UniProtKB/TrEMBL annotation:
Pfam families: DUF302
The DUF302 domain, residue ranges: 32-93
Protein known as: DUF302 domain-containing protein
Species annotation: Metallosphaera tengchongensis
Highest taxon above the source species: Archaea
Gene3D superfamilies: TT1751-like domain
Amino acid sequence: MIIKECKDSFDSCVQRVKERIVKAGSVIFAEIDHSKNAKEVGMELEPTKVLIFGNPRVGTILMREKREISYELPLRLVIWESSGRVQIGYRKPSHVAQEYGLNNEILKKMDEFMENITSV
């Protein structure tokens, strides 16, 4: 997993990443708030969110080549705060695709996309 530090507050980091995802032409399909879910069952967890997003025009190309990759799509990343530090984590799409024997040129663009949206 690639882990980057975000200098912003947790909420600001989440907002900036979401804005970058949408600006790049992708759709945010889901936002999972693990700390909220933990609170609902009487447990505590520092702020932790998973964003699930993608562009069907891109993902479909890979799924048409190897349907099993659909298990890994849409793309996702995690943003969390621990001891006052905000971090972003994700798996490089090209590395995930290698597990499925894919080596499509579009994966390089997906890697660049992930690098760009997480550089906040």
